[in-house]
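We modelled the chain as a single entity of 320 amino acids. Its sequence is:
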Amino acid sequence: MSELVTGEAVALELRPAKLPSRVLALLIDMVVAWSVYLAVTLGLLAATASLDDAAAAAVAVATFVLVLVGVPIAVETLSHGRSLGKLACGLRVVRDDGGPIRFRHALVRGAIGVVEILMTFGVVACVASLVSARGRRLGDVFAGTLVVRERVPAARTGYVPAPPPWLAGRFSELDLSGVPDGLWLAIRQYLARMGQLDPQVSWSMAERLASDLAARTGAPAPEGVPPAAFLAAVVHERQTREAQRAFGGGGLQGGAPGAWGGAPASYTPHTSYTPQDSAGQWAAPGATGAEAPRSSASAQPAPDAAAEPERPATGFVPPA
């Protein structure tokens, strides 16, 4: 089993697809594609009977490229890695970091698939999948993708904790274009497991990852910010930007526009933040909860104990 992390920073235990299931999915896709290709070809032969041989050959080549290459690329892009065969077999194409694929990934897989699948009848793809530890063919290697099984037994999964509120929006100007997918994967896996690690080991790992991330972004981590909190805040910023690209910009309902960097109101992070955990979650080993930054709510004075309890809207008065 290989653990992947989605673009929403959720750790998933997904199994890389085995060769038999991939072959079955490919056969389904090929049957559908060749059926459409033959139907389109017959229609074009009837419609272009008056053309000369050169024009007929050009139409045939264009039909081959469009139906057998272009359509699969478009389907994988629009379905985020689930063609008809993969959907029937419970498979999906994802990036190396577990996120959904985009057009460039589908384009590279489709272009190389012409050689290793169509021209060699799948022999090259089968050999490459057998040699690869994760069953990847050449198109997956060059595109940076992986075919995984979606239908797996339910299991407990770890969630990446949300950053502390006092870091919200602090890294909205950070350049994340130079951070590789492998580093994002390492950061997310660390954040999902940091509660299970020894405090000293967790702190040293966070410092190393924060240093690598700062080197990739060109901006050092702010002074006084725990490295784990810095990592969580930057991952949250990346989630926000991916949500903006997927759904468009806009403000949150009931809040100031751009409170999450312009994330739309329909976007809800897959993480939760509980104030009672903020005191020691991001603190250094041996630090007490009192050393964590205090929120505005904690700074408010406590109500007078002798004051009469306020009557709630339900009419129930708590006993004295």
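As a brief sanity check on the tokenised model: Confidence is low (pLDDT under 50) at residues 5-12, 250-279, 288-320. The radius of gyration is 26 Å.
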